[in-house]
Write a structure and sequence with these properties.
The complex is a heterodimer of chains A (about 400) and B (about 290). Chain A has 20 helices and two strands. Chain A has about 400 residues and is mostly helical. In chain A, about 50% of the residues are buried. Chain B has eleven helices and four strands, in the order ααααβββααααβααα. In chain B, the strands form two sheets. Chain B has a two-stranded antiparallel ribbon with strand order 1-4. Chain B has a two-stranded antiparallel ribbon with strand order 2-3. The longest helix of chain B has about 30 residues. The radius of gyration of chain B is 19 Å and the shape is globular. The relative contact order of chain B is 0.19. The chains are: A mainly alpha (about 400), B mainly alpha (about 290). At the A-B interface, helix 8, helix 9, helix 16 and helix 19 of A face helix 4, helix 9 and helix 11 of B.
């Protein structure tokens, strides 16, 4: 199985994952894991397996998954402690942003180190609108945050569409380092270093009734925000999943993998790149809005370069181009730090030192993953599954005398 | 007028440091087509080694030499162990590996040396020279900064122009296959290139730290400035990196000197300059039109 672990593709070509066995070559080439991201191109297990219980229509399938996700979210949030609730709220904003970044980096091949800054735009917009004496309804405020971030994202996207690889990484890096300075410059409106406090609105009565009906508990503010996060997460992933499987998603992959061919086919590369940036910026804006509500603060210190790099870590470790991978990677971002920090404290590190262990682990894991499993967790699992299937198919052909 | 001169002088001094950092990025880009986003953390690591030595009672110059030497070692190790496996692969992978190194190094600095602000000494004074009655913003330290960067550049030029190793390094950067056919040990040259770049990066880290406070993330802005400077000159050109560094130093100095509360805008101005340059002249100011297809 060494072929699945060490795909070492030649730069920019589609020569396949070098050391495939001959048997695997035949059946797996059209989905051959060429680049780190390509493993996610394979049709989802349900669609390819042929003996699935899910509906064949993509939209129906995703609606069913959405419903299952909603039920699962209610069950998980009701069964877990308030502390885990707040961790899950954290997970929801990481995952929303990571989902958007998956579209941009995984599907369209544009790297962005500036999504933390875009989250800041969403968070500050939410904070500003909630400061009003008679704030607008929460969904409307979140929508405004998304629209504002989308506009900023479109501006950045237009510039980014002309840039490649390291140039784009550098420009978005500059965005991540530079944008928080705006909050300090306009300290009158944006609160400077201290930032803006966020007054999370009270949950509506329908929510209290709903929770009382489901579990008999009386809901806390934390739980309400966890639900807000979960709802936003489910909606975002439902929309993104449909987008990924649609014509648009296929075009993005074409732009990423076969630039010249895509251009010859009449695809306007720049416009599609901008669109990918806009979609991922919208997700980042929503993530920022949820973050502002959960953290109850929008301050420059919350949107450091480390945040942007953490998002990248999440999607790379989960598996570039896979929404499930983005979710898994985000879970790592939330649940690994407490674990590692405790471990550090056991080894006699003081608090501030132990807090740095998590980023250290991220960095090391990022390097190790890129060297040994560039397809990430989901990609590697999927590649193994594809290879195994190809071998079975080859064996079946051989036994029927083919 | 005096204000203008002072702002210009401090801009030039800062610009020299950006130029050195940009030069380190360009050295690596030319040989391996990778932008080393970990450059700043590597430089920060060696600066903290120097600070530890100074705190232990060693002189600035001992610490200086040790820092540059450890930069050399760190650069070589990084290329051999971490970068070699992703060289020639998809560029996204190389970028991500460099970022992983960036995060890991920055965190290990905080774990080993602590994350508080510590002041870093400078061997020369920071009081400006006086001409007649007026004090200008040219200090012994800034002369030292400008001088040491110029000496480093001179040494690099001499290395690449006049030595066999320099020729071999240029050959490996220019065409790996051909160089290999001609008997150049390309792998060794790439390692050497990374090591030298790390030395230059460490130098800029030491210089920017002199007389200021250091903390694990103190190089974050310098990465951006160095990158912008390198792109201004067009990633491929060492001369461009130097000119780009000086131009950026001046521009940022004017922003923070003339705009009200301009210091908050320095980082975002670097972004604005970067975007404008890339939109108007995507290849940078000094690159031939074919050089950039990255």
């Amino acid at each position: 199985m060494s072929d699945a672990q060490t795909p070492r593709p030649a730069a920019g070509t589609d020569s396949g994952a070098g050391t495939h066995t001959v048997a695997a070559e035949g059946a797996a080439t059209e989905e051959a894991p060429v680049e780190a991201t390509a493993a996610a191109n394979a049709p989802s297990a349900q669609a390819a397996g042929g003996r699935s219980f899910l509906p064949r229509s993509t939209l129906l399938r995703h609606l069913l998954l959405l419903l299952l996700g909603a039920v699962a979210a209610v069950i998980i949030l009701e069964l877990t402690s308030p502390f885990t609730n707040s961790q899950l709220a954290q997970l929801s904003y990481f995952a929303i942003a990571a989902g958007g970044l998956t579209v941009l980096t995984g599907l369209n091949g544009q790297i962005s180190l500036g999504h933390g800054a875009l989250m800041a735009v969403g968070a500050y917009t939410t904070a500003l609108f909630l400061q009003a004496d008679e704030p607008l309804p929460l969904p409307l405020i979140m929508l405004v945050s998304v629209v504002t971030t989308t506009l900023v994202g479109a501006l950045v996207g237009v510039a980014a569409a002309r840039l490649h690889g390291p140039y784009l990484a550098g420009a978005t890096l500059a965005l991540a380092v530079g944008l928080p300075g705006i909050a300090i410059y306009f300290h009158g409106t944006l609160g400077g270093e201290q930032g803006l406090r966020v007054r999370a609105p009270r949950p509506p009565e329908a929510f209290d009734t709903f929770i009382g009906w489901v579990s008999g508990n009386s809901p806390s503010g934390t739980k309400w925000l966890a639900y807000v996060g979960a709802i936003c997460l489910l909606i975002t992933f439902f929309l993104l999943a449909n987008l990924v499987r649609s014509r648009i998603g296929r075009t993005w992959r074409a732009v990423r993998d076969q630039e010249v061919a895509a251009e010859l086919a009449g695809i306007n590369l720049g416009a599609w790149r901008v669109l990918a940036f806009v979609v991922s910026a919208a997700a980042a804006g929503l993530a920022g809005a949820v973050l502002a509500l959960v953290v109850r603060l929008a301050a420059p210190g919350g949107f450091t370069l480390v945040l942007s790099l953490s998002l990248l870590t999440a999607i790379v470790l989960g598996g570039l181009g896979s929404l499930v991978g983005a979710l898994l990677g985000s879970a790592l971002l939330v649940f690994l730090p407490p674990f590692v920090t405790d471990l550090g404290a056991d080894f006699g590190l003081n608090n501030t030192e132990a807090a740095q262990l998590a980023p250290f682990v991220y960095g090391v894991v990022l390097i190790v993953a890129m060297i040994f499993a560039p397809a990430g967790f989901v990609g590697t699992v999927r590649m193994r599954w594809l290879t195994a299937r190809a071998k079975r198919a080859a064996a079946a052909r051989a036994s029927t005398g083919g | 007028m005096q204000r203008f001169i002072n702002i210009t002088l401090s801009g030039l001094t800062e610009g020299m440091i950006y130029a050195a950092f940009a030069l380190a990025l360009v050295l690596i880009w030319r040989s391996t087509r990778i932008v080393n986003f970990a450059q700043g953390s590597m430089a920060a690591a060696t600066t903290f080694i120097a600070l530890a030595l100074i705190d232990a009672g060693q002189s600035y110059w001992v610490a200086f030499v040790v820092a540059l030497a450890s930069g050399f070692l760190l650069g070589a190790i990084v290329e051999r162990v971490i970068i070699r496996p992703v060289e020639g692969g998809p560029e996204l992978n190389a970028v991500i590996v460099a970022l992983g190194l960036f995060v890991a190094l920055q965190a290990s600095i905080a774990i080993i040396f602590g994350s508080s602000f510590q002041s870093f000494p400078t061997p020369f004074g920071v009081r400006g020279f006086t001409i007649g009655d007026t004090t200008i913003a040219l200090t012994p330290t800034s002369l030292y900064v400008i001088g040491s960067v110029l000496v480093t550049m001179g040494l690099l030029v001499a290395l690449f122009r006049f030595t066999r190793v320099g020729l071999a390094m240029r050959a490996s950067a220019f065409g790996q296959e051909v160089a290999r056919l001609l008997g150049v040990r390309v792998g060794r040259m790439l390692t050497l290139g990374w090591a030298l770049a790390a030395v230059v990066g460490s130098l800029s880290g030491l210089l920017i730290a002199g007389g200021e406070f250091v903390y694990p993330a103190y190089m974050d802005s310098l990465i951006v400035f160095g990158f912008v400077a390198a792109v201004l000159g067009g990633l491929d050109s060492p001369v461009g990196a130097v000119v780009g560094g000086l131009l950026l130093g001046l521009a940022l100095s004017y922003v923070s000197g003339y705009l009200p509360r301009g210091s908050a805008l320095v980082n975002i101005s670097a972004l604005a300059i970067l975007i404008v340059v890339l939109l108007v002249r995507p290849g940078g100011l000094f690159s031939s039109s074919t050089a950039r297809r990255a």
